[in-house]
C-alpha cells in the first residue's frame, strides 16, 4: 500500500470479505456508516476538523496534520476541501485492491 507522505502504512484489505459477507446492499450501508462516523454532523461532510476529532476511532491518533490533509486531498474530487458521502465511497473502493481487482473481472 502507498505511504502517506513517507510514512509506511500497514494495510489489511477487509473490504472484499465485508462485501462477500454483507452482500452489496449491506456493504454500502456499512460504507455509509463509516462516513457518518467521520463526518461533521452539522456540515454533513468529512472535514479536516472532523477527521482530526474522530481519528482515534481509526486507531491513528498519532497521525500528523499534513497526513490528514493528504487524506482529504486524495478523496476530495470536487475540490471543496471536504469529502462528501459519494467521494468517501469512491475513495474506499479505490483504496481496496481486492475490490478494484473484482471490478476489473
Plain-language structure description:
This protein has 105 residues and is mostly helical. The protein has a domain at 44-96: Orthogonal Bundle (Recoverin, domain 1). The protein has five helices and no strands. Helix 1 (15-38) runs antiparallel to helix 4 (85-94). The longest helix is centred in the N-terminal third of the chain and has 24 residues, at 15-38. The chain is globular, with a radius of gyration of 14 Å. Keywords: Calcium. It holds the Pfam family EF-hand_8. It comes from Salix brachista.
Helix content: 55-70%
Which radius of gyration do the C-alpha atoms yield?
14 Å
Helices and strands, in N-to-C order?
Answer: HHHHH
Shape: globular
Domain EF-hand: 63-98
GO molecular function: calcium ion binding
Protein name: EF-hand domain-containing protein
Keywords: Calcium
Which secondary structure elements does this structure contain, and how are they paired or packed?
Elements: H1 15-38, H2 48-54, H3 65-75, H4 85-94, H5 97-104
Amino acid at each position: 500500500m502507498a505511504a502517506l507522505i513517507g510514512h509506511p502504512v500497514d494495510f489489511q484489505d477487509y473490504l472484499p470479505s465485508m462485501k462477500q459477507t454483507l452482500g452489496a446492499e449491506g456493504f454500502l450501508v456499512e460504507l455509509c456508516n463509516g462516513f457518518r462516523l467521520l463526518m461533521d454532523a452539522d456540515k454533513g461532510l468529512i472535514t479536516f476538523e472532523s477527521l482530526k476529532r474522530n481519528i482515534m476511532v481509526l486507531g491513528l491518533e498519532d497521525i500528523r496534520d499534513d497526513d490528514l490533509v493528504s487524506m482529504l486531498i486524495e478523496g476530495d474530487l470536487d475540490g471543496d476541501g471536504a469529502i462528501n458521502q459519494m467521494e468517501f465511497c469512491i475513495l474506499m473502493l479505490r483504496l481496496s485492491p481486492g475490490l478494484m481487482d473484482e471490478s476489473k473481472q
